[in-house]
Amino acid sequence: MNKAFTKEEDGSGPQRLPDLPISPHPNHVTPRGMAQLQARAEALEAEIARLRDNVDYLADGYPLAVAERDLRYVEARLASAILVAPPDGPVSHVSFGATVEVVDENGAAARYTIVGEDESDPGQHLIAAFSPLARALMEARVGDVVEWPKPTGTVDLEVTAIWFDASAELTGPRPPAQ
């Protein structure tokens, strides 16, 4: 029989799933992103310990294999993390970790925070630094109009405010709290 059609594992030990792919982009993280990765690693370690203590896991080792694979991924991301702290002084332009308020050509306002890949969540307006929107915003200053290339066409966005957190100095008028 062709080796491609045979099963490698004999079922005598726990499964080992293939590792998740690691992004080719630099692994820049905000302090919050680093804390999230560390918390995720701790949660996965606790889940692995719980699964190993459960004798029933031997019947179905898949949940353990998933948790171990995920922990390997998170540990690799932590090992390659490049922590980018917010600037100490006044904010003059958009950079990694910044929250940016913009207004589009129709007057609709939006806020986006430029974060690392593992922290990104477009639904929460947390955008990865290598995304088209983040690349359009990088280095912009309050009052600049940037072009955001979208599949439906280019959108002009005016930068109206830039900040890093509630205690950081704000360039432009402070937006109302959400």
Automatic annotation (TrEMBL):
Keywords: Coiled coil, Elongation factor, Protein biosynthesis. One of its GO terms (molecular function) is translation elongation factor activity. Pfam families: GreA_GreB. Residues 92-163 form the Transcription elongation factor GreA/GreB C-terminal domain. Residues 34-61 form a coiled coil. InterPro entries: GreA/GreB_C_sf, Tscrpt_elong_fac_GreA/B_C, Tscrpt_elong_fac_GreA/B_fam. One of its GO terms (biological process) is regulation of DNA-templated transcription elongation. Residues 1-31 are annotated as: Disordered. Residues 1-10 have a biased composition (Basic and acidic residues). The keyword Coiled coil applies. The keyword Protein biosynthesis applies. Signal peptide: none annotated. PANTHER family: TRANSCRIPTION ELONGATION FACTOR GREA, TRANSCRIPTION ELONGATION FACTOR GREB. This is Transcription elongation factor. It comes from Roseovarius gahaiensis.
